[in-house]
Write a structure and sequence with these properties.
The complex is a heterodimer of chains A (about 525) and B (about 425). Chain A has 18 helices and 22 strands. Chain A has about 525 residues and is α/β, with parallel strands linked by helices. Chain B is built from 18 helices and two strands. The longest helix of chain B is centred in the first third of the chain and has 30 residues. The chains are: A alpha/beta (about 525), B mainly alpha (about 425).
Chain lengths: ~525, ~425
């Protein structure tokens, strides 16, 4: 099926989200739609899927003009969409979710569960999308849920599959699996529109790339283009993809994590005897695939989660049993991995969000009342300094784009002198331009003498920023390596394999952890 | 969708080509909460009018021969509706007949009754609204009002203190009583995770039945011990009348307005209110920012209880002079509708409380002078809130366009715990 968009224009009030966009998707190709957050990619796809009605232009399928009154028409025409946020019922099984709105019945409205299962199994086998038909959605990892969404579209005979930022929620492994699935689908003749702002993925799977900036097509690129070329096309100016930073000069030990053990609510040991320390002026990365205890460990450090054993000290002070409020007051800054869930309050204004953890400090309050003037002044200053794009400081935080929300959280945490900064997944779901900015600020914080703990599942980010890397696997730090270690070695560690050539003393820093433990410094040769 | 944040001032909802100007104007109207609220009121009054017509005996008998003389039915209905709503207005705002006598009571009587009814509704509405903002659903207004009224009333009749001091002590006792009753529910949630909807409802039963018991205890019960009514509150402990003794309006009104101002300040300008709102809007982010969510539960329920306790205070030290088993007069539950109508902010709650107070006062007059059952007023009250919770229905009825969600949606979060 050939799909063509001609001169699609979509306006919201005075704002033009899509300005005369042309796009041709040939049968059996993976067509990447590359653009920053807010460039108009999702709007365009929502037009195509019948969710929005275009103000101008037309959609052609196999060279015939079609018009969609809603998603049902689009689906009937062979267009399937996997949204960034999944549309699944958590308490239903996979088969039930797939059948939803498309139920197989035995007549008299009685559901034919066996036929439904058969259908799901058949489609999942045909395209190599393994999904357990009887599992409840809520029990499945995100990657599998996404596959269910794809199966859902395929069962409705989708010939063109739109994937809206599909990798934003996936681990590196799951991303690789998804790419494999995309290639299988392509081989079977399904076209894919792949919406993303991640350059590496585009270059890995796309056949053709259309770059959108500010609602306009700014160019086509081949997957052989370099990341730098793609990035500058996307952002509209040359972008620094590699992170520039001076050699670091570690100072005193700021934070010490000693034999920490954490048991989660289900009784599972999620952090198992982890020890590491971070020096002033150093970025220590906790690398690893999502779900290997990094989240729990950082939550424990800032006091959100009780320890089952071990000790955490900050500048020599034991903070193991302190609460979050006291720990934040001890000059610790925290950027949580899920900013919408933990980092900001959607209904609060930008100004309120910027003082979320300091509203009661002497700076922003006078006795029992808030100092509204200072809060507003602070907001104007931070918004300016961190280039947070917002209509005003009184706009609700939820109206900001992902990248700007992240800058907002960062602006709040970096607006006071810090001894220790913990940043978790700082650039997840953040566009290239903001990523560059966020990375520069993290390095600047290090250069200013703070100790930084970076938690990231992105290998590039870890390699680019870290001065020292601890790789977490199944709740343990299975290896601690200096900056400059090859991506391959770290990748192996992330998968749980300790390479033979790794010096023995780097393998299990926890094993020698009683006072006399030597810390590996990056300036020491391996 | 990733591109939600468009750099424009307003993102209209998807659909339709560029809207024509009249449609845009109607959409703006449809999104305006004040307009929707007013229209909800109008729609509810229309339904109320139909009910009045049905409850009118003359209309009913005329409808028996509707098809031979339809005008008879319509004329009777119009007359019943006209008389009913005129009586409602006369009971709530101004009655020309009594005003013609030229007495203070004649002129200001209806307004006084409205304000008397509105006072505890405003306080109760503030209590429920404040808890809403912190993400809690306070169904315990009844129990907190009973606890407050009992404590204030006991101090009022059992102690004998000098003028002014007695009143102040009695008010404080009522605040403490209601506050503790509310804080108990908050503390249970903070310590054990017990859902406040369940605990507050159960505490209602405890409070009401405890009062029932007290009303049979000598020293509390009024001699000669035949009825379930307490001793009479000392004159020193009574809230002073504002417009002379012929009118019931009393200083309780000032307590309510003062409380409304205090809650407005609390929610918009105070450190504590910031914490309450943060906990109500996003508990996880509040916790991550170092706020103690549990402590907020106890604190907000303490303050909500104090407000309900004050409602009890105005009941016992203002409107009534002795405690009876039904001292709460259904205010604890009407307060929920007041808070919803007032959208859980202080100013809105005052207006909603005044409206409901007027409906209460007018409904009494309507029943006594035209025989229209007062239940019509309850139906109108319920319909107003129903229409506001379903703005799409109001927009449909009045052919407006809009995109806003219902008022209840943001507020009913407390149910999820």
């Amino acid at each position: 099926m050939k799909l063509e968009l001609r001169g699609i224009t979509k306006r919201f009030g005075s704002f033009t989200a899509n300005d005369a966009i042309d796009l041709v998707v040939e049968p059996g190709e993976i067509h990447a739609l590359l653009g920053e957050n807010g460039a108009g990619k999702s709007t365009l796809m929502n037009v195509l899927y019948g969710l929005y009605h275009p103000d101008g232009g037309e959609i052609l399928i196999d060279d015939k003009v079609v018009s969609f009154a809603g998603p049902a028409d689009a689906m009937a025409a062979g267009i399937g969409m996997v949204h960034q946020h999944f549309m699944l019922v958590p308490v239903f099984t996979v088969a039930e979710n797939v059948e939803l709105g498309h139920e197989q019945t035995k007549g008299f409205g009685i559901l034919d569960a066996a036929k439904a299962r058969r259908e799901v199994t058949e489609v999942s086998a045909r395209y190599g999308l393994s999904v357990p038909p009887d599992a409840l959605i809520q029990d499945l990892p995100v990657g599998v849920q996404q596959r269910v969404e794809i199966v859902k579209a395929l069962i409705r005979n989708a010939k063109v599959l739109i994937l809206d930022e599909p990798t934003a929620v996936l681990t590196p492994q799951e991303t690789d699996e998804l790419m494999e699935v995309m290639r299988t689908l392509k081989a079977s003749g399904t076209s894919i529109v792949f919406i993303t702002h991640k350059l590496r993925e585009v270059r890995a799977v796309a056949d053709r790339i259309t770059v959108i900036r500010r609602g306009k097509v700014v160019g086509e690129a081949s997957p052989n283009s370099s990341s730098a070329e793609l990035a500058s096309l996307m952002v509209g100016r040359p972008v620094q993809l590699t992170i520039e930073k001076a050699a670091h000069e570690p100072g005193d030990v700021i934070a010490e994590v000693d034999n920490v053990r954490i048991v989660d609510d289900a009784g599972q040991v999620v952090v198992d005897d982890v020890s590491f320390d971070v020096h002033a002026g150093e970025i220590y990365a906790l690398a690893g695939v999502q779900g290997n205890g990094q989240t729990e460990l950082t939550e424990a450090i800032i006091g959100l989660r009780p320890l089952d054993g071990g000790r955490i000290t900050l500048s020599g002070r034991d903070i193991t049993d302190s609460d979050v409020h006291d720990i934040l007051r001890a000059d610790l800054g925290y950027v949580p991995e899920d900013r919408l869930h933990d980092g900001l309050i959607g209904s609060f204004t930008v100004a309120e969000n910027l003082v979320l953890d300091r509203y009661d400090s002497a700076e922003f309050s006078k006795g029992p009342s808030l100092d509204v003037g200072r809060i507003a002044a602070n907001a104007r200053q931070r918004v300016e300094e961190f280039d947070v794009r917002t209509q005003s400081v009184d706009a609700p935080g939820s109206t900001l784009s992902g990248g700007n929300q992240q800058k907002l959280v960062l602006a709040r945490e970096l607006s006071r002198p810090l001894k220790l900064l913990i940043v978790a997944q700082p650039t997840r779901g953040v566009d290239v331009g903001s990523t560059e900015f966020i990375h520069r600020r993290i390095v600047a914080e290090r250069d200013g003498g703070a100790a930084v703990v970076l938690v990231s599942t992105e290998l590039d980010e870890v390699l680019g920023l870290a001065d020292r890397i601890g790789v977490m696997y199944r709740g343990k730090i299975i290896g601690e390596v200096p900056a400059g270690t090859s991506a391959e070695t770290i990748g192996l560690l992330m998968a749980g394999t300790v390479p033979d050539d790794l010096p023995a003393r780097l393998r299990d820093p926890g094993a020698t952890a009683t006072g006399s433990r030597t810390t590996v410094r990056t300036e020491e040769p391996l | 969708m990733t591109e939600v944040a468009a750099p424009t001032s307003a993102l209209p909802e998807p659909g339709g080509p560029d809207p024509a100007a009249p449609v845009r104007r109607r959409r703006a109207l449809g999104d305006n909460t004040i307009v929707v609220t007013l229209l909800a009121f109008v729609a509810a009054m229309v339904v109320g009018a139909i009910l009045i017509a049905f409850s009118d005996p003359a209309t009913r008998s005329a409808s028996a021969y509707f098809f031979s003389a339809p005008m008879d039915t319509l004329r009777a209905a119009a007359s019943a509706i006209g008389r009913g709503y005129a009586a409602l207005f006369e009971g709530a705002v101004f009655n020309p007949t009594t005003a013609a006598r030229g007495t203070v009571a004649g002129i200001f009587g209806p307004i006084s009754e409205t304000l008397v009814s509105a006072t505890p509704l405003i306080l109760g509405g503030l209590s429920v609204g404040l808890a809403f903002r912190a993400g809690l659903f306070n169904i315990g207004g009844q129990g907190q009002i009973v606890a407050g009224a009992t404590c204030a009333g006991y101090v009022g009749f059992a102690w004998h203190l000098p003028v002014v001091i007695h009143l102040v002590v009695a008010i404080v006792a009522g605040m403490v009583g209601g506050g503790l009753w509310g804080a108990l529910a908050g503390w249970l949630k903070a310590r054990t995770g017990a859902h406040e909807v369940i605990t507050t409802i159960m505490l209602n039963y405890v409070a009401v039945n405890m009062l029932g018991f007290l009303l049979s205890v000598k020293g509390f019960q009024r001699p000669p011990y035949g009825q379930a009514i307490s001793n009479v509150v000392d004159a020193n402990a009574r809230l002073p009348h504002l417009l002379g003794s012929s009118l019931r309006v009393n200083a309780g009104l000032f307590l309510a307005l003062l409380a409304a101002y205090a809650i407005h300040w609390l929610l918009t300008r105070s450190v504590l209110g910031f914490e309450f709102r943060a906990v109500g809007a996003n508990q996880n982010a509040a916790r991550t920012a170092g706020m103690s969510v549990e402590r907020s539960y106890t604190r907000v329920m303490l303050i909500a209880g104090v407000l309900s306790g004050l409602a009890g205070v105005t009941q016992i030290l203002g409107t009534n002079s002795a405690i009876t088993g039904d001292i709460d007069a259904g205010i604890g539950f009407d307060a929920i509708t007041v808070a919803l109508l007032g959208r859980a902010n202080a100013g809105g709650t005052v207006l909603a409380g005044l409206l409901f107070g007027a409906l209460r006062a007018g409904g009494v007059q309507m029943q006594s002078s035209t025989g229209t059952p007062i239940d019509v007023v309850s139906v109108v009250q319920a319909l107003i809130v129903l229409f506001i919770a379903a703005p799409a229905l109001v927009r449909f009825l009045f052919r407006l366009h809009g995109s806003g969600a219902g008022a209840g949606q943001g507020l009913a979060k407390g149910w999820n715990g």
